[in-house]
Amino acid sequence: MSQADTQTQAPPAVKLSLPTLTTMVVGSMVGAGVFSLPRRFAQETGVAGALIAWAVAGTGMLMLAFVFQTLAVRRPDLDAGVYAYAKAGFGEYLGFFSAFGYWASACVGNVTYWVLIMSTIGAVAPALGDGDTVLAVVLSSVGLWLFFALISRGVKEAAAINRIVTIAKVVPILVFVVLALCYLDPGVFADNFAGADYAGSLFNQVKGTMLATVFVFLGVEGASVYSRHARRREDVGRATILGFVSVFAIFASVTIVSYGIMPMAEIAELRQPSMAEVLEHAVGTWGKVFVSVGLIVSVLGAYLAWTLMAAEVLYVAAKDDDMPRFLKRATAADVPVPALVMSTVLSQIVLVVTLFSDDAFNFALDLTSALTLIPFLLAAAFALKIGRAGTWAQLAVAALATVYTAFLLYAAGLKFVLVSFIIYAPATVLFVMARKEQGRRLFSPREYVILAVSVAGAVLGVVALAVGWISL
């Protein structure tokens, strides 16, 4: 066996139990998003719109969770779920885009964690601003590469740390909900029910919150990404549902109880993390400190989980020959280091881009959600495609999940669809590299059409940014 073969041959995969898989799903979902929810929702909607938004998002994401559960059982041959389902259903090129989009969304999402950490510390260190100053970016960059060194030690060690962090970070969130309920003012809650004048119609209020709900639910598919590590295949689906149910009530509660503490317009003007600011208004400075410390623990844990998932997607795509072969290299500790390097580098680039954004946190949050929608839509559509051979219940769930993700693309708006194209189109270089390594034709006639659409979208996006039709 040659040295090259030795480098690309994967070591035995670490096997993860149901509790560990579930903890990784919860750890992925409970992150920066939940600590930012009060302000983000108050910028868009009142209590009525928030209740409807959570009902729509909860139902839609539950359908997606059921889709991932069903596909894990019906197609146990497919690893790294989101990417593999798109490839099996719609061909290699769209499968590649799904893998790249999901990976890119994880990397961009990781940037929100560092922005929020710096914004939190910025409350006492003004030089960090809202997490978007030069100093904040420098310190965040140091954190990026320190975590790279930690994760390089091995998946097993990182998963063990994530279990501890997940338990630690849920506590301050639950304390926030309980205290907010104790201090809830019925009069303030009632005044916030219909929403402020700036929120617009009820439909627009609900539509405006959709990307935020997508962001906080990212991670519901986490167990399917780690399907190659599961001890039992059925544990993948079980961990998906358990993880979703565990966090849905927490997310909705954090949003709704905040409307009973402060007027909606005041919440909309709070600095991030807005959850800390809301609790400070209710109980004093100690509440802000308590939530801020919990946030830092929470965000670091979520960053760990998402960095692992990002590298895993690139690694498995490379093993399936849909990415260049250098990405299939892994260490004896089962860590795909080249994929990990690429993930850290992309996060580093996006961190620098936040310096030029009007609102670094919301920009990274919305872009993360938008990049994830194509992979989610393709996975739901694949479930719909094979659902005809299953039960009526499975077909109905797949149809609802497909309609929901299509609605999310509409809710995202043209701005983030175009910015997504700007990121997707250049990624084709990696697809071409993989095809050349295999001595294959670069594109089929159908794939040329997809390429043309992606390039046209990217060009339109660049023009729109250049002339000011859209802005970061």
Summary keywords:
globular; 472 residues; mainly alpha; disordered N terminus; single chain
Task: Please give a structural write-up.
The chain is an all-alpha fold and 472 residues long. Helix content is 75%, strand content 0%. It has helices spanning 3-8, 18-29, 32-42, 47-74, 81-90, 92-121, 134-151, 155-182, 186-191, 202-217, 222-225, 234-258, 264-267, 274-283, 285-319, 337-353, 360-387, 392-424, 428-437, 445-467. It is globular, with a radius of gyration of 21 Å. The model is unreliable at 1-13 (pLDDT under 50).
Topology readout:
Layout lengths: L2 H6 L9 H12 L2 H11 L4 H28 L6 H10 L1 H30 L12 H18 L3 H28 L3 H6 L10 H16 L4 H4 L8 H25 L5 H4 L6 H10 L1 H35 L17 H17 L6 H28 L4 H33 L3 H10 L7 H23 L5
Helix pairs in contact: 2-8, 2-12, 2-15, 3-10, 3-12, 3-14, 4-10, 4-12, 4-17, 4-18, 5-6, 5-17, 6-7, 6-15, 6-16, 6-17, 7-16, 8-12, 8-15, 10-17, 14-15, 15-16, 17-18, 18-20
Please outline what is shown here:
By secondary structure, the chain is mostly helical. The chain is built from 20 helices and no strands. Helices cover 75% and strands 0% of the residues.
State the separation between the terminal residues, measured CA to CA: 50 Å
What do the pLDDT scores average to? Answer: 80
In terms of structural class, how would the helical and strand content be classed? mainly alpha
What is the strand content?
under 5%
